[in-house]
């Protein structure tokens, strides 16, 4: 049995929005590490951060369109990319194109709950394990 070693990197933040941005950036990097074909370009990370911070709803989508000056069609294409990468899922749990409602995947929902719905007087941590494979 090998020894388990840890290395700590502290990630400072000033408010919930800054924390959301940093958590999504780290999560996005892990997605790419798991499968290099799933690179999330900056615009995808930015949109995903809005959904992580504000939830997937009409108000958030309107904020995204206004803040990034994009059309509904452009946002739909971005949402399709995020779904194909696997960070958004259809609301009914299927891949049916008929259901336009999406939501964060369970891992992202868990991160959202863990990091954004708690008291910051306590320490929050995300552990990423590096496992050698053959």
Please give a structural write-up.
The protein is built from five helices and two strands; from the N terminus they run ααααββα. Helix content is 51%, strand content 4%. It has helices at residues 16-34, 42-54, 58-68, 72-85, 106-116; strands at 88-90, 102-104. By secondary structure, the chain is mainly alpha-helical. The model has no long low-confidence stretch (mean pLDDT 84). It starts with 15 loop residues before the first helix and ends in an 18-residue tail after the last helix. The chain is globular and about 50 Å long. Strands 1-2 form a two-stranded antiparallel ribbon. It has one domain: Arc Repressor Mutant, subunit A, CATH 1.10.10.
Strand content: under 5%
Q: Which parts are unreliable, with pLDDT below 50 for 5 consecutive residues or more?
A: none
Termini gap: 17 Å
Radius of gyration: 16 Å
Briefly note the structural class of the backbone.
mainly alpha
Provide the number of structural domains: 1
Q: How would you sum up the major sheet?
A: 2 strands, antiparallel
Strand order of the largest sheet: 1-2
Sketch the topology as an H/E string, one letter per element: HHHHEEH
CATH topology: Arc Repressor Mutant, subunit A
**Helical content band:** 40-55%
For this structure, what is the CATH class? Answer: Mainly Alpha
Bulk shape: globular
- At CATH level 2, the architecture is Orthogonal Bundle
What's the assembly state of these chains?
single chain
Report the average pLDDT across residues: 84
Please work out how many helical segments DSSP would assign: 5
Beta-strand segment tally: 2
């Amino acid at each position: 049995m090998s020894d388990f070693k840890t290395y700590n990197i502290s990630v400072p933040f000033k408010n919930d929005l800054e924390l959301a941005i940093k958590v999504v950036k780290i999560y996005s990097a892990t997605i790419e590490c798991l499968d290099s074909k799933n690179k999330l370009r900056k615009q995808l990370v930015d949109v995903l951060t809005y959904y992580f911070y504000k939830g997937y709803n009409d108000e958030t989508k309107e904020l995204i369109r206004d803040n990034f000056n994009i059309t509904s069609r452009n946002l739909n294409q971005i949402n399709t990319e995020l779904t194909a990468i696997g960070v958004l899922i259809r609301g009914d749990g299927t891949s049916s194109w008929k259901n336009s409602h999406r939501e964060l995947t369970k891992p992202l929902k868990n991160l959202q709950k863990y990091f954004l719905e708690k008291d910051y007087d306590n320490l929050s941590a995300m552990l990423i394990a590096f496992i050698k494979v053959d």
